[in-house]
């Protein structure tokens, strides 16, 4: 069942999303060569709690941290550790907030210092794919119109979309219906309606789309060892343009 949100519910989701967006923006300023991913974890955990909110991921299905830190060939769900970032790495940060009964969720891939132009292009195309997908989140379209537009942009540019993980509805649960794949033919799946809140999250690989899960039970990595990027926004379908709730204004 897809839950359409009331105005009051939307306001609460928007508040959680605002904390998510500001936390991601603050992370931008601390990402640099020499920082360990567990330092980013402490920073984000403290940031969320200082906003009287709860880190949504900690304890979710046993996930051990408040943020996901996925480096280079790590696609998503990288667990913060003593790994120290170095110049040229790319770092995907995914974080979620729970406050007053509702969730917000977003992700961003940051360059660490100066990076290779191929990595820059991967990041750029992934972010563009997210915005192209969001643009399709309109009444009259169906879920797979989002999926298809993302896949098309990614593959036209020579990259691949990860198929093993999908975007999702979001609200009083972190993961609600509908699932939002980042690939597929257009015109399929549920019709989009005003009041739907969706987390759209393309994961894009430089090489093949295949991923595997490391022995830690969480970290998804590319099978071919090539780079991967991830961008995510929580958005609201409206009678007018899609509204990006995790955007920093
Ligand atoms: Co998500």
Task: Give descriptors for this structure.
binds cobalt (II) ion, Creatine Amidinohydrolase, single chain, four-stranded antiparallel sheet, 15 strands, alpha+beta, globular
Please, could you describe this protein's structure?
The structure is a single chain. With 249 residues, this protein is α+β, with helices and mostly antiparallel strands. It has a single domain (7-244), classed as Alpha-Beta Complex (Creatine Amidinohydrolase). Helices cover 29% and strands 25% of the residues. The chain is built from four helices and 15 strands. The protein has helices at residues 7-30, 37-50, 117-135, 143-156; strands at 54-55, 67-71, 74-76, 90-99, 102-111, 160-161, 167-169, 176-180, 197-200, 203-205, 211-213, 220-222, 228-230, 233-236, 243-244. The strands form four sheets. The chain has a five-stranded antiparallel beta sheet with strand order 8-7-9-14-15. Strands 1, 2, 4 and 5 form a four-stranded antiparallel beta sheet that branches. It has a three-stranded antiparallel beta sheet with strand order 3-12-11, with no helix packed on it. The longest helix is centred in the N-terminal third of the chain and has 24 residues, at 7-30. The chain is globular and about 45 Å long. The two termini are 32 Å apart. The mean pLDDT is 98. Bound molecules: cobalt (II) ion. Cobalt (II) ion binds at residues 105, 168, 199, 201, 232.
């Amino acid at each position: 069942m897809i839950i359409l949100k009331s105005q009051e519910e939307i306001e609460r989701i928007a508040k959680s999303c605002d904390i998510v967006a500001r936390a991601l923006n603050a992370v931008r300023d601390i990402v640099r060569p020499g920082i360990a991913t567990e330092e980013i974890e402490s920073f984000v955990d403290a940031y969320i709690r200082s906003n009287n909110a709860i880190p949504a991921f900690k304890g979710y299905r046993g996930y051990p941290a408040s943020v996901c830190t996925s480096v280079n060939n790590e696609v998503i769900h990288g667990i913060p550790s003593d790994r120290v970032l170095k110049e040229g790495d790319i770092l995907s940060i995914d974080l979620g907030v729970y406050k007053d009964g509702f969730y917000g969720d977003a992700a961003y891939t940051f360059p660490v210092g100066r990076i290779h132009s191929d990595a820059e292009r991967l990041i750029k195309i992934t972010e563009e794919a997210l915005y192209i997908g969001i643009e399709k989140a309109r009444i009259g379209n169906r879920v797979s119109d989002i999926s298809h537009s993302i896949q098309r942009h990614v593959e036209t540019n020579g990259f691949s979309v990860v198929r093993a993980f999908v975007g999702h509805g979001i609200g009083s649960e972190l993961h609600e219906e509908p699932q939002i794949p980042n690939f597929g033919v257009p015109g399929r799946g549920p019709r989009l309606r005003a009041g739907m809140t969706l987390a759209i999250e393309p994961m894009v690989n430089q090489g093949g789309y295949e991923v595997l899960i490391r022995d830690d039970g969480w970290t998804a990595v590319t099978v071919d060892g090539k780079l991967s990027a991830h961008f995510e926004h929580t958005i609201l379908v409206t009678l007018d343009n899609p509204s990006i709730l995790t955007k920093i204004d």
